Amino acid sequence: MPEIHETPDGLTFRKWTPAWLRITLLLAGLLTLLAPYELLLVPGLRPSLAAIVPLLISLVAMGLGAVCVWIALIAPSESLRLDARSRRMSHAGSNGRPFQAVYPFEAIAEMALVVQDWETRADTWRIEFRLANGTRIQTPDFRDRAEAEAYLDRLRAMVRADDA
């Protein structure tokens, strides 16, 4: 379920990786960097056939640690804000690279409910904004269809408020 902030002027949908998960991944990644020290440097292994197993374990641990640190640093986050006062939709976040875009409400060609079909869990729903330039922007997943439809109705009313 998305984190939703409501204000008198609009709605903000946020999807982000929790800090506790990022910190856990970072610490686990840094901890695995001790393997080369403990397996190669402390025992004072010299290059030989006997050093191949500790060397392979160390390389795998360093690779795993690097992946954990990388994921902790670039974990995805996304924010979608619809502001009724300024009549703009802003989309910002990072998926390895920060991005930010602002669109006027007039650029929204269509809003629709999209079902996300999962094989291993219950279906979820997203609100999809189709812009006039072909760009598609989706909210984070809703577990409850009725809740997603209620927010879709509110967003339609907000976007079309001054169109009439």
Tell me briefly what this model is.
The protein contains 4 helices and 8 strands. It has 164 residues and is α+β, with helices and mostly antiparallel strands. A hairpin with a 7-residue loop joins strand 6 and strand 7.
Strand order of the largest sheet: 1-2-3-4-5
Average of per-residue pLDDT values: 86
Q: Could you describe the largest sheet, including whether it forms a barrel?
A: 5 strands, antiparallel
Radius of gyration equals 23 Å
User: What percentage of residues falls in helices of 4 or more residues?
Assistant: 25-40%
Task: Count the beta strands.
Answer: 8
Distance between the termini: 32 Å
Number of helices: 4
| Structural category | alpha+beta
Q: Name the shape in a single word.
A: elongated
Task: For the structure shown, list the relevant keywords.
alpha+beta, 3-stranded antiparallel beta sheet, 164 residues, single chain, 37% helix, elongated, 5-stranded antiparallel beta sheet
Write structural notes for this entry.
A hairpin with a 2-residue loop joins strand 1 (3-7) and strand 2 (10-16). Helix 1 runs antiparallel to helix 3 and helix 2 runs antiparallel to helix 3 (52-74). The relative contact order is 0.14. A five-stranded antiparallel β-sheet has the order 1-2-3-4-5, with no helix packed on it. A three-stranded antiparallel β-sheet has the order 6-7-8. It contains four helices and eight strands, in the order E-E-H-H-H-E-E-E-E-E-E-H. The chain has 164 residues and is α+β, with helices and mostly antiparallel strands. The chain has helices at residues 19-32, 34-41, 52-74, 145-159, and strands spanning 3-7, 10-16, 77-83, 88-94, 98-104, 108-116, 124-131, 136-138. The chain is elongated. The model has no long low-confidence stretch (mean pLDDT 86).
